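Researcher: First entry.
Model:
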Amino acid sequence: MRKQLNSIALAISMCGLAGTAYAQEAGSVVVTGGAAWIDMRQSSSQELKSSSQFGTFTSPGTGAEIHNTFTGEFLVTYFATEHIAIESAVGFPPKLNFFSQGGATP
């Protein structure tokens, strides 16, 4: 019981640390910045397969991979009314590191 009361007291005291919320008016534009994590979890490939007018071939020992990266972004929010907003994300093109191995031969 005492542990539960301590948890409730902690939760109530944390409410005092929370900032106040500011309501937006119609016509307001809010711009926020941040970072986006691009996760290329399924980026690795196995053997290279190629199709052309001369046929299809597989090159054993080949592969490729793209690594994960961060990029900057801005969120632009326009409040059409006090309760309805239109939001757009604008970001910087990320720099991706592409690694490959092997030699492609028919």
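Researcher: Second entry.
Model:
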Amino acid sequence: AVYEMMRPAEAPDHPLVEWQDSLTEDEKSMLACINAGNFEPTTQFCKIGYQEVQGEVAFSMMHPCISYLLHTYSPFAEFKPTNSGFLKKLNQDYNDYHAKKMFIDVILEKLYLTHERSLHIGKDGCSRNILLT
């Protein structure tokens, strides 16, 4: 259900599109804030949803609580500090994305259009950019 909401035109088994590096270092730096401060094409877009409406593409980032509960959370008491750290980082990425959304979305659209209208981008046949669901 999350996949249908965040990437309605893309099936979870959508084949990856090979990375075509067309970004400047400044653009990569700008995108680093959505991936824990790093830019890595094979993991960069796993929290980003997109949808085309009337020829325009709109991007959104999965809320950190959803990402956290689906993939990071461990219910064991001994993981409390780890859980807290993961949620804090996910929240920071989310806040950074929204603070710079106007600039980031321009870069995301550029990538989306040059990668066959997809952000399921991989490198050397490897990708973890399938939406986290």
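Model: Note on the second entry: The chain has one domain: 2-122.
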